[in-house]
Design goal:
This protein is α/β, with parallel strands linked by helices. Helices cover 32% and strands 24% of the residues. The protein contains nine helices and ten strands. The strands form two sheets. Strands 1-8-2-7-9-10 form a six-stranded mixed β-sheet, with helices on both faces. Strand 4 and strand 5 (71-72) form a beta hairpin. Helix 6 (123-133) packs across helix 7 (152-165). It is globular and about 45 Å long.
């Protein structure tokens, strides 16, 4: 029997043990999945803006992607918006990524035996990986808004993954994802905020199980990398 615990926010990431799953549906982990689907060579998560900029010099021709309070970091090529990325921009590129929630969870999961990431777009692949690995403990970490406020979409993703691992898969996911339109995703429908939170991002981030892969966080001589793997 796998012990699956659900933790929350940056503090939860710090407490996570075992196989740790960093969840950020809106939008960091969703974006990283789309980047790989568009042909990105590598995605490298980083903690601070300064670290990301410094790392870009290690990878000539790399792309900087990131946000703070949802807004694209000054001087970066991309923000945290899946709909702003295209194959023409990211294909065969190293993307250095820093956000206020998702990548912070990765950086702070210091007690994890292994770190993978999850969003609705690859939730089933993540669950299948867990079932294949059969770890004693799984920590599902819902990163929420800016890593400090719980978010309904991350809670749903964690509950869904947990249900599959425990053999009682949720059957009302379509209805519950639709519910996010008014409870958790409202900011994507604010006409005055489309530059930061475009509506298209909501639809891209709530497509369930469209990617058959997951991202495992590893470390090489140049730092952290979210590496695309099949379950």
């Amino acid at each position: 029997m796998i012990n699956v615990q659900i933790l929350r926010l940056i503090e939860g990431a710090k407490k996570a043990t075992g196989l740790t799953v960093i969840i950020d549906v809106f939008r960091a982990i969703s974006l990283e999945c789309y980047l790989y689907d568009m042909g990105a060579k590598e995605v490298r998560p980083t903690g601070t803006i300064e670290e990301a900029v410094k790392k870009s010099f290690t990878f000539p021709g790399s792309i900087l992607a990131g946000e703070r309070a949802g807004k694209k970091c000054e001087g970066f090529d991309l923000g945290n918006s899946p709909c702003s990325a295209t194959p023409a921009i990211v294909a065969d590129k190293v993307v250095i990524h820093t956000t206020s929630a998702g990548t912070q969870g990765i950086i702070n999961a210091v007690h994890a035996d292994e770190i993978i990431t999850a969003c609705l777009a690859n939730a089933r692949a993540v669950a299948e990986y867990i079932l294949k690995k059969q770890p004693e403990t799984v920590s599902l970490v819902c990163m929420g808004n800016m890593g400090v406020h719980p978010a309904a979409e991350d809670e749903l993703c964690a509950e869904y993954i947990k249900s599959i691992v425990e053999g009682r898969e949720l059957t009302d996911m379509e209805e519950r994802i639709a519910h996010l339109r008014y409870h958790g995703g409202e900011h994507f429908f604010d006409p005055d905020n489309q530059e930061v939170f475009p509506e298209e991002d909501f639809w891209l981030c709530t497509k369930c199980n469209i990617f058959p892969f997951l991202l495992r966080v590893e470390e090489d001589e140049k730092g952290l990398i979210s590496r695309k793997i099949m379950p």
